[in-house]
Amino acid sequence: MTPPAHGEPSLPPxxxxxxxxxxxxxxxxxxxxxxxxxxxxxxxxxxxRYILKAAGPDTVLVIPASCSSVIQGMYPNTAVNVPVxxxxxxxxxSCASGMVAGLRRAGRETKVIVYAGDGGTVxxxxxALSGALERETDFLYICFDNxxxxxxxxxxxxxxxxxxxxxxxxxxxxxxxxxxxxxVEAHHxxxxxxxxxxxxxDLFQKVEKALTFRGPSFIHLLAPCxxxxxxxxxxxxxxxxMAVKTAAWVLWERGQGRxxxxxxxxxxxxxxxxxxxxxxxxxxxKGLDPALLSRLQQGIGTNREAILAEAERP
Length: 314
What we know:
Blueprint: H1 43-55, E1 59-64, H2 67-70, E2 84-87, H3 92-105, E3 111-117, H4 119-123, H5 126-134, E4 140-145, H6 180-185, E5 191-196, H7 200-210, E6 217-222, H8 226-229, H9 236-245, E7 252-255, E8 258-261, H10 263-270, H11 276-279, H12 290-311
Parallel strand pairs: 1-2, 1-3, 3-4, 4-6, 5-6
Antiparallel strand pairs: 5-7, 7-8
């Protein structure tokens, strides 16, 4: 079978949301079982639950070194009810490329999803990701971004925001967050989006949509981490929603060259609540230097204005 050309959807070109869709329409099947060793309130494992519900059982996960590689359970048992290939930090996208090539050669349409942290995406795995995007690999790459190297003690990563306290930036990070979305955009993938576990239906729908396209799709998933961000374990969803309300995290999707803002972000994008309402919920921003706070606010404002301008472009 000859696959469609890069950028051509494998389903009809116009993917419409099902009218009136609610959480009740999400499948009941579970692919992440209750025996994970995730921290209480872990948003990346919660997100993976909805990702796999959208993808279904004919799916293979490729997971590089990350929190998600250590929460699966002790060999030979696992809490993940689909095949998982655990791979070295730098090699997830390369592994997925070979896996896709083999599956397609065998005539199989099995979905290949890379589920990688920010360390394995914006830093150590960036070269392999760029290569897979350039080769138009038919896969979905999801970066769950907890903004630090979470499974080794919360060291700073290229995705750690300005001013955040980590074990290697005890006075606050002095460099801005790497703009991985713009790096990915430069490769012109057929589909690209942002998401967060605080809005699971939005996440579910975006994964469904991403998997209708031939070629590479990329979803950047903010993953609030109670342990690393220093907030109570029961506040994960609240912190995530506040990230969106302040426009510190804007939900959008880009397909066929056009960007649209997702429903939860439409109001906050034009009328965000004060950024301090989000930062004040997290111990990692305790004692934030006023100069760094000003730079952080400016960067978030610039990003918000750029997204708004692109979304309103004719």
